[in-house]
Amino acid sequence: MKIDAFLPRGFPGDIWALFITSVISSVGFSITMPYMSLYMNNVLNISMTVVGAILMIAQIIGATVGLYGGEISDKFGRKFIMVRSLSGRLILFALMGFIILRWHNIFTILSFLILNSILYSFYIPASQAYVADLTRADERLKAYGLLRMGGNLGWALGPTLGGLLATMEYAYLFFVTALCMLIAMVVLLNYCKESLIYKKMADNDAFAQNQKASV
């Protein structure tokens, strides 16, 4: 059964599935991340200055890698990249949970944040290109807004859920996040078709029309 049977009309079901994926993955990410700086400061005794530097380094590296995200999704496919990003983050968060339970230090945390930032930086341009492939120019702005709303909704729910789970050991929150990434990946795999083929078809049609016009 198609997912758009249960959702408001206007966008393809794939766009709504991507919206749901965005909500779930953002919920998962925001369960752990708001408390990461407190964890580093209170548990690992890392000064807030160093904590800020660690977060900044991870963001800079992720942003730099993100410059190539669109090109990579053009080559391998939007869905392909998004699924790999979510699966990579699933493994990363689960592994981080085990590491925090057993062994952890500043270098482990930095490596985790950098890898997560890189994987996220691949996901974003691929998801934006996916929206562009499956929507008309006149509805694209609303579709991007829907995707952004999904992320914001996830960030509104995630920290609240993280607070409710705060009685658990911090490491277990990473397992909850990994579960969210798994659910998001399952939604993406089952309800989002690969869109790159539609972009190529549209490009070929546009090229053919231009060729006819020039004759």
From TrEMBL:
Residue ranges occupied by any Major facilitator superfamily (MFS) profile domain in the UniProt entry: 14-215
Molecular function as annotated in GO: transmembrane transporter activity
Protein's recorded name: MFS transporter
InterPro entries: MFS, MFS_dom, MFS_trans_sf, MFS_Transporters, Sugar_transporter_CS
Originating organism: candidate division WOR-3 bacterium
Gene3D superfamilies in the record: MFS general substrate transporter like domains (1.20.1250.20)
Subcellular location as annotated: Cell membrane
Keyword Transport recorded: yes
